[in-house]
Amino acid sequence: MADDTGELEARLAEQDEFAPPESFVEQANVSDESIYERFEENWPECWNAAAELIDWSSDYETTLDDSNPPFYEWFTGGELNASQNCLDRHLDERGEEVAIEWIGELGETRRYTYSELHREVNEVAATLRELGVEEDDVVTLYMPMVPELPIAMLACARIGAPHSVVFAGFSAEALTTRMNSADSEYLITCDGYYRRGDALEHKEKADEGVSGVDHDVTGIVVDRLGEEYDHPMRERDHDYDELVAEQAGATVAPVDRDAEDMLFLMYTSGTTGKPKGVKHTTGGYLAWVAWTAQAVLDIKPEDTYWCSADIGWITGHSYIVYGPLALGTTTVMYEGTPDYPEKDRIWEIVEEYDVTQLYTAPTAIRAFMKWGTEYPDEHDLSSLRLLGTVGEPINPRAWKWYYTHIGDEDCPVVDTWWQTETGGMMVTTLPGVGNMKPGSAGPPLPGLDAQLLDSEGDPVDNGRAGYLTIQKPWPGMLRTLYQNDERFVEEYWSEYSDTDSDDPDDWVYFPEDGAKVDDDGYITVLGRVDDVINVSGHRLGTMEIESAIVGVEGIAEAAVVGGSHELKGESVYAYVITEDEYEESDDLHDAIVASVEEAIGPIARPEEVVFTPELPKTRSGKIMRRLLEDIANDDELGTTSTLRNPNVVSDIQQKVTDN
Ligand code: 6R9
Questions:
Q1: Neighbouring C-alpha atoms within 13 Å toward the C-beta of 3
Q2: Torsion angle (degrees, nearest 10) of CA 174, 176, 178, 181
Q3: Is the CB of 544 under 6 A from ligand 1?
Q4: Of 17, 238, 380, 545, which has the most beta carbons under 10 Å away?
Q5: What are the φ/ψ torsions at residue 2 (nearest 5 degrees)?
Q6: Contact (CB, 8 A) for 82 and 423
Q7: Ligand 1 mean position to 511 CA, how many Å?
């Protein structure tokens, strides 16, 4: 056996291109390669194909209104409701089929058929109305992976109240910032949840967050922990079960929303310390996630599809909730971690539920790889038809491991590049059409125009690194940053556009990623080129972390960079300078870690804190992050000749080695 595996690995190691399995192609939702040409010739009307996947209460008049770039509008004049699309329209044919298969960490399960989900969403929608929530009021959802989270999202969508989901692992401070920024007066939260068998209390953190909000907040609290935790209630808090019980059997007609009305806000990290409120709309976003879910994830109503992300991130919004439910399939929602109670938990679930597609992150795959093949080998994974990854670059070795040991060389692997801002997938192979190349996401989807440019805006040669740009609008794109059109233009459009022009051809979207492209047009995404790092697929702004660190008494200055990490992709390296009267100490180290956790959350915890008397700076006083990155990665150092203080570099290097 060991020999076989060795041989197999050796063979795979050499192979850098894989054709989609024949058995997959035969049944794929999309298998005709002419789709690329057809979409290009028929742009932008090609996107009517996406709009056709959803129900409209009033037909749209125009596919794309590009009269005021970069404020594009899609499917203008159309009206629809996302909750109606995810629920009501499936009731006749699929009312008794499973919509959400929820698996709790402690082994308990909850199953919602489409009619059951429809009932509870209606009751929650009625509850929100009763509390005074009106159309266009932003409702904040600060909840872990409990069924009430997607239920609340759909209830908000039903009454036309945009939701703003704040990842439960984020800190109280992060909640405050987001609620203030969105003027959100309503919060649905949870008493707590389970992590590796332990009850984690969440309500105190929520309350602390609310205490910083500059206006009154009405709360609804889901009781997940029961008697295990006697959670505090504020005066304006209500118990979820009690309120919903009062609305038993209530129905709320889905509100007609204009295609361009906001469906939700999602805050994400950017270059500056302040998170960006990405605005997604009802028509374009829903069409985009439905279309990509059927074309790339090959979702069919009879599937049991599982995306292992957290709904607190965009991946969960698009590919646990809206995409799969719009298509009427069964979507699996898992509360826990992949190694609890054992390292085979994922494979146990795949086997038990006959999961047909698995969509996860490279970080998870690298962990599975490290744990060893014995865990997947214990289970029958033959129900799987397709595998996907998202969130960060996947190294070819991890890709091949996934393809072989999970997919049994019989499932296509889609490596999907996209962002919070793009709403859904952008660059990936179509699994029934294109060959796969491990490590390369693939070509842009049909109807998308991606190009690599150098810093002057000129195209770069194939094989060379450049900046990824998107040259034409697409339905799922963000429309703006909440109440900040100026920052929207500045962040995404100023780099490569002629911002004085009203010709859409002069406007180019810049996602702030570096990439290279090969002769077949396959794009390998290299990573962020701004001050954002990607830890386990989670986007973190280095400025946010730095400002938490310099908030610690005794710290004068901090520079944060990403260092490569075997499992997480990148990890947080913090280089800090103490104030004169202070010295490096364990206490100071712990205070730094605590402050980062408090400001952002445990995901941003520094892996290394390096105390140094100086930071490498250019003559103009700018910190040379590139050098700090080289040190963190133990790479050969780039040039130090432009530094004001070149000697500091070897000192820091020595400290990192000693740590
Ligand atoms: C969906 C999501 C976006 C950033 C993006 C890029 C990185 C995502 C990737 C990938 C290489 C992939 N990224 N998918 N890099 N290959 N398949 O992750 O959204 O949290 O906004 O992060 O993630 O750097 O710019 P978001």
A1: 0
A2: -140
A3: no
A4: 545
A5: -60, -40
A6: no
A7: 10
Q: What are the boundaries of each domain within the chain?
A: 530-659
The CATH architecture to which 530-659 belongs is 2-Layer Sandwich (3.30)
Atom of ligand 1 nearest to the CA of 537: 18
> In angstroms, rounded to a whole number, what is the distance separating the alpha carbons of residues 242 and 229?
18
pTM of this prediction? 0.90
Whether 532 contacts 541, CB under 8 Å: yes
* Of 170, 267, 313, 392, best ligand 1 pocket probe by most atoms within 8 Å of the beta carbon: 392
- Residue 100, both tokens: 């959400």
Nearest in space to 624 (alpha carbons), one of 609, 614, 633, 636: 614
Give yes or no for a cis peptide into 446 (omega within 30° of 0).
Answer: no
Among the residue ranges 265-279, 452-466, 502-516, 597-611, the one predicted with the least confidence is 265-279
Give nearest CA residue, ligand 1 atom 1. Answer: 419
CB 464 within 8 A of CB 63: no
Q: Which atom of ligand 1 lies at the shortest distance from residue 421's CA?
A: 21
> Ligand 1 within 6 A of 360 CB?
no
Token pair of 460, please?
């770069």
Q: How far is the CA of 361 from the centre of ligand 1 (A)?
A: 10
Cα 308 → chain centroid: 11
How many CB atoms sit inside 10 A of residue 214's CB?
8
Partners of 199 in the beta sheet?
Answer: 194
3-class DSSP assignment, residue 142 = strand
The pLDDT tens digits for 117-155 are 999 999 999 999 999 999 999 999 999 999 999 999 999
Q: What is the pLDDT of residues 276-298, one digit of tens each?
A: 999 999 999 999 999 999 999 99
Nearest to 545 by CA among 172, 275, 141: 275
**Tokens 């998308």, residue?**
448
- The ipTM value here is 1.00
**Under 8 Å CB-to-CB from 569, ≥6 apart: which residues?**
362, 363, 392, 393, 534, 535, 536, 537
Interval 379-413: pLDDT, tens: 999 999 999 999 988 988 899 999 999 999 999 99
- The CA 538 to ligand 1 mean position distance, Å, reads 8
Cβ atoms of residues 103 and 349 within 8 Å: yes
SS3 342: coil
The residues that bridge with 481 in the sheet, in sequence order, are 278
Residue 268 Cβ < 6 Å to ligand 1: yes
Instruction: Pick the atom of ligand 1 nearest to 427's CA.
Output: 17
Q: Report which ligand 1 atom has the smallest distance to the Cα of 318.
A: 1
Question: Do residues 290 and 328 make contact, with C-beta atoms less than 8 angstroms apart?
Answer: no
- Per-residue model confidence (pLDDT) at position 509: 98
Picking from 486, 485, 539, 536, the residue whose alpha carbon sits closest to that of residue 512 is: 539
The dihedral region occupied by 537, where left means phi > 0, alpha psi between -120 and 50, and beta the remainder, is left
Residue 6 scores a pLDDT above 80: no
DSSP letter for 506, please.
Answer: G
